[in-house]
Structures are given as C-alpha cells and as structure tokens.
Amino acid sequence: MRLLHRNRGRRALTALVATAVAAPVLIAATPADAHGGNDRQHRKAERLARQLERESSAKGAYRHLKAFQGIADANGGNRAAGTPGHKASSAYVYKLLKQAGYRVSYQDFTIWDAKTTTEKLSVLSPDPRELKVTAGRLSPSTPAAGIQAQIAVAKVSDKPGCTPDDYASDTFTGKIALIKRGVCSYAEKQAAAAKAGAIGAIIYNHSGTAPARPRFDKPADGKIPTAGISLADGEALTTAAKKGPVKLSLTIQQQHIPKTTRNVIAETRGGDANHVVSLGSHLDSVPEGPGINDNGSGSAGLLEVALKLARHTQHPTNKVRFAWWSGEELGLLGSDFYVKQLTPEQRKKIALYLNFDMIASPNAAELVYDGDDSDHTGSGPGPKGSAEIEKLITDYLDRKHKPHEGTDFDGRSDYGPFIEAGIPAGGTFTGAEGIKTAVQAEKFGGKAGVAYDPNYHAKGDNLKNIDLKYFDTNIDVIAHAVGIYAHDLSSLG
C-alpha cells in the first residue's frame, strides 16, 4: 500500500509515459443470462463459492509467500517495481496462471527512478543554519551552486497551496515558496507556486517529526526544484517570515532514470466478456523490504483463489479477470495505466473491481471498504454498486461470526483508478501504519496503541510479519466473492 500524499477523500492519480501493451481486448460473448439474475444461477454461484472457500486457504497461499520471500532474498531484499525482484515475481505469477489455463498477458509501462546526489537546504538569514531536507523524487535539479532567494509563504487554508488564491499576491516572483503539505498532490502545489512566479518550493509536513517527502510520478510533473522539510521547521520559517525577510539556499542534484515494469493480467477463457468480474492486488514491494504483507499477502491470496477457480471452471457465466499491478508503491501507476488504456466501451463491460492490499497484517483489524459511506468518514460513497459489494462481504463475515468494521476509500490503493472511472469497487484490508485503538483490540485481538503493521514499508515485512488467521479469513472473502460474482451479478442491482 502506497504512502498517502493527499488527505482523505482525494488521491493522486497519474498518467505515465507508456511503452507497450494496451489493455487486453475484451471479446464479446452472449450467454443467455450473463447477469445470473435467476434462482438457478444463484444456486450455481453459491455452490462454486462453497467449493472455492473449502479449497482456498492460508496454508495453500503461504507457498506463494515463501516464493516471494525467496525472490526478494535473491534480488537485493526487495521486489520493487522496475527491479529484478519484481520481474521474477511477475514471472512466477505468470507461469502458474498459464499452467492453470488462463489467458495471461504482460502489460508493460514506463516508470522513473530518481538518484539524488545532492540535497541541501540552508537558512542564510536572519538566523543561519542547516535544515534537514529531502529532495522531491523526480524534482528538477537546481544549478550546481543552488538557488538563493527569500521565501514567500503560501496561504494556509483548507487546501493549503493548492489553488491560485493561495498565491494571490505578487510576492512569489523570484522567491522560494513555503507550502504546507495536505489535500492536493505535491505536483499540484509546486505547479501552482511556479505559475505564481516561484523559482523553488519547500513543502513542510502536516504532522510528525520527519520531513515531507515530495514525489512526482514523472519528470515532466516537476516545474521547479522541490524539497520537503518537517512540520517544526516549516512552522519556524513561517513565524520568522512574519517578522521580516528570510533567505534560503536550496541545492538539488538528481538524475532521472526510466525503467520498464509490468502488470500481469489473467482472465478465464470463457464467460461473458460483456460482464467482467475484475480483481486485483499489487505485486510490487517498496525498496526497503520484501513486502510480504504489503502486498505479498493480497497477491498470494488472489493467486490461491485464481488457481482453485481454474480447477472448477474456465467457463463461468461472467468472465473473471485477475490483475497483479506494478508501481502501486509509486502512486497506483500500474492500475492507473491499465484503466487509462481501456476504451469507454471496455470500461462499461467491467461490472466491478475488488481490491486486496495487505490482508494479513500482524496486528490486524478486519476492515471492509465503506462503499455506501455509512461511516461518514473521509471520501464519499463509491460508484453505484459499491454499497452492494460491501454488503456481500459484510454479510459473509457476519455469517462466519467474524467481526469487522468499515474503512474509507482514501485513495491509497488500486481501487482508486477504477472508482474514478465510475466502476463499483470494494474489498478488504487489515491495516497499515495506523494505530489500533483499544476498542479495536477488544474486537479483533492484538495490541492497542500499536500499528496494525509495525513493519510497514520496512525490512521486517517478511514471512514473520503475517497473521495467518486473518490471512485465511480474507482468502475466504476472496473465494466467496469470486464464486458468487463468477455466476451471479444480480446483487449489484
């Protein structure tokens, strides 16, 4: 699961420079009742769901986690997009799906790596000192000697630094803009500052003690050299600027390196291509670790169910399409690329999208995406049909006496591009860096006051970082949803 670069309710989606394969072509088919809206289809769906639930398990999926761990161990400790570890992970998934009888394809696209050689920020006056700074990923470089200029502070509003109004004065020309993180993307903030005449941008964090980590999805997004500092340093500079001129020196030297990565797409050979049941998980890890919970767990769970489905049918009523995305950790790049390659007609044929990202967190909570916005938290409801997806999942968990609660569509995972395209979405999640509450600890077990995944985006996200009980529960959720929707979409309304 990627880091959040906007506040809840919004998300940063980006177009990439694509190099190769467009989305798989949808071939029309016309079974008599593709929606499955009758008793016979419903019974057929329930029967397949029970079969998949019986045969799909955490024990079966664990072999895939072991394979992902072995791949990471053999490739520098990670499976990040654009690396040999991710390429080997993709080949592993592709081979098993091909052997199972699916139509499988790679979908290549370009991502960008950034190699920073210099990142330095100094206050020249009135109180000379060095500040801890992080160069924006894919930021433009400064001249070798850096840029020296006074700061101009963007308005701190409900959407700080996001709109032209936040730069309404003419004081930004030739200055370094100081902007608070939040709501809109880093790219939008520095672009607005550049339009107002700023020659550089410093974005300070909205919480915690670490510097903000600005990032762009491709070099063209960067308009001016951009770097991040901590909340405390940002507030100190803001206070000083109210008393008089504050002059900074900012130096960023960075190389931008294009790389190719790929999604893996597999679909059943049969089934009505006018009614596609789509599921996905991201296969890439962060560079810091092997990514066994994030997101080996979702990838392995999806693979387990896909292989079990192939044992029973390659000709469901509705076509079932599985996807293992790349570049999620860089900003949902693989899923965004996939959705943008679809024609309007192809998008309409996707009945729903289910996302499974981090489904075995070691201090887990059972979280179901809030399709109807009944929790009234963060973003609004998903597209029409999302509420019904949530209900199918929660009804299943209720029948199994598994406690659960809602989680917001906050844009941090690969459902985002599908929602933006108007496709109903849902899925489950067991938590990332958020802190488990005392109420949640009583409901789900585990430790209150501790992150759902204490090894989130870290080296420790390995085979020991998995809760097998929650892994098994969420694999059952995948199996149930696949079984039902493969034959019966009538519950979507």
Count of alpha and pi helical runs: 12
Helix content: 25-40%
> What is the number of beta strands?
14
C-alpha end-to-end distance: 30 Å
Sheet/helix structural class:
alpha/beta
Quaternary state of the chains: single chain
Percent of residues in β-strands: 15-25%
Order of helices and strands: HHHEEEEEHEEHEEHEHHEEHEHEHH
Shape field: elongated
User: What is the radius of gyration?
Assistant: 23 Å
Topology summary:
Elements: H1 39-55, H2 58-73, H3 84-100, E1 103-125, E2 129-131, E3 134-135, E4 147-153, E5 176-180, H4 186-195, E6 200-204, E7 226-229, H5 231-243, E8 247-267, E9 272-282, H6 292-312, E10 318-325, H7 333-341, H8 344-348, E11 350-356, E12 367-369, H9 386-399, E13 405-407, H10 415-420, E14 425-429, H11 438-444, H12 468-487
Parallel strand pairs: 4-5, 5-6, 6-7, 9-10, 9-11, 11-14, 12-13
Antiparallel strand pairs: 1-2, 1-8, 3-7, 4-8, 8-10, 12-14
Helix pairs in contact: 1-12, 2-3, 2-6, 3-6, 6-12
